[in-house]
Amino acid sequence: MNKRPARLTATLAIAAAGALTLGACGGGGFSGSNNTASQSTAKGPVKLTMMIGSSGDAETNAVQAAVAAWGAKTGNSVTVVAASNLGQQLGQGFASSTPPDVFYTDASKIGTYAKAGDLFAYGDQVTSAGFVDSLVKAFTYAGKFYCAPKDSSTLALEINTDMWSAAGLTDADIPKDWAGLETVAKKLTKGNITGLVIGNDINRSGAFMRQAGGWVVSSDGKMTATDKGNLVGLQEVQKLMKDGVLKFNTQTKPTTGWGGEAFGKGLAAMTIEGNWIAGGMKDFPNIHYKTVELPAGPAGKGTLMFTNCWGISAKSANHAAAVDLVKYLITPEQQMKFADAFGVMPSTTEGLKEFAAKYPDSAAFVAGAAYGQGPVNLAGLDDVMSKFNSELGTMTGTSGDPAAWLAELQKSGTAALGS
User: Fold this and answer.
1) Engineering a disulfide at 351: which of 69, 81, 315, 332 sits with its beta carbon 3.0 to 4.6 angstroms away?
2) Are 169 and 128 contained in the same domain?
3) What CA–CA distance (Å, rounded) separates 97 from 74?
């Protein structure tokens, strides 16, 4: 599932990225002198291969600098591969005898990779880092904590402050609940400007489901798609659509690639996006905006959290060195370097405190980390969730049946999980 917009895809959202190549990047697995599987009996410096999905040069350069610093400290070396299609290339690597030693792993893929035996479970070696609880849950499968969350991202509400003021709104009108959101969205909708534009899948509408007390699966891995909160949340989205104050990014005129693009082009007065929007808005320097927490629903506050972890291959011959590298990468100091370089939030409570102090404009994102819902991470649900998202993307104010879609999701998901 795509979490971030396609043009900003990477560390927190999905397993694909810009076509940036370093070292031995290619369409298949790994070959040549950088392979680590042949080094199981070697002595001396260790050579690791790392595969990442990068949002651009800033992220790639930051990762290279970090592993170079670790290498200088330890005498080891790391070849960084920026994948053009991380999911595909990881799959090819896992199928070979020489997968990358360390790699970005999206939380939604943890169950799939863990069940297949592709991951080395080292989470018990990094618990002292002080990760946010919801992130630990995101990378826990079948009761086992597999890998260290590398960063975090949550959804919040972005408001165009010029449009806000022009509509006669003040800080006192910042919506605290759904009723408040409905009110300001109506006041902000004018002509070709829609009050609120969001992405067209569960990675945005799911926030309303959480605010109504729902989610797709339970904490013990059972399908809960037909729980009342899920329907209530999607009905609120459809109600806003019917009122003409909410559109999916695919429904704007002209259509846009993600909510941030609609927001940046002045087609949306508000959007719901993650902290990566700071990078996206650099393309729209004339848009002035502020970020606030998402309004609460009938069950209280709710947002979604997106994250990757530092995965380590079960086949790697250098587990000890790989874990040592990860421990270096998750220190508050290094996580703040990543935050400074390309906008991600740290994954530890200490790191988030430093981030909030340095970037007060991002306080809403940090606050969401305390109650954010991680992605569905169970093996076997990818196709089921993809179909649900395709259906959800067709919803308008007058068409689409969320109740039927959720019922189908429950049935198909239960069958896929074998329970």
Assistant:
1) 332
2) no
3) 26
Specify whether the backbone of 192 is left (phi greater than 0), alpha (psi in -120 to 50) or beta.
Answer: alpha
Model pLDDT, residue 368:
94
**How much of the chain, in percent, has pLDDT values that exceed 90?**
77
Residues 128 and 28 placed together within one structural domain of the fold: yes
Rounded-to-integer distance, Cα 155 and Cα 314, Å? 33
d(CA 195, CA 160): 10
- Could you tell me if 110 and 39 are in contact, meaning their C-beta atoms sit under 8 angstroms apart? no
Identify the residue with better confidence: 16 or 264: 264
For residue 280, what is the domain's CATH number?
A: 3.40.190.10
Residue 40 has a pLDDT of 36
- Distance, in Å, from the CA atom of 45 to the CA atom of 43, rounded to the nearest integer, reads 7
Residue 259 has pLDDT above 90, yes or no: yes
Q: pTM here?
A: 0.82
Say if residue 299 is in the same domain as residue 312.
no
Are 364 and 157 in contact by the 8 Å Cβ rule? The answer is yes
Q: Do both 361 and 245 map to the same domain?
A: no
Whether the per-residue pLDDT at 28 is higher than 60: the answer is: no
Q: Over the stretch 388-398, which tens digit does the pLDDT of each residue have?
A: 999 999 999 99
pLDDT at 248 over 50: yes
Q: Which residue shows structure tokens 């990094």?
A: 126
Residues 255 and 168 in one domain: yes
Q: Hey, what are 336's tokens?
A: 């703040």
In this structure, the answer to whether residues 146 and 162 fall within a common structural domain is no
C-beta of residue 310 within 8 angstroms of C-beta of residue 329: yes
Query: What letter does residue 308 receive in the DSSP assignment?
Result: E
- Give the structural domain span for 73: 6-152+307-373
Is residue 363 within 8 A of residue 382, CB to CB? The reply is no
Report the 3 state secondary structure along 217-242: ECCCCCECCCCHHHHHHHHHHHHHHH
Note the maximum CA span of the chain.
Answer: 71
The answer to whether residue 164 is domain-embedded is yes
DSSP one-letter string for 236-293: HHHHHHHTTSEEEGGGSSS--SSHHHHHHTTSEEEEEEETTHHHHGGG-TT--EEEEP
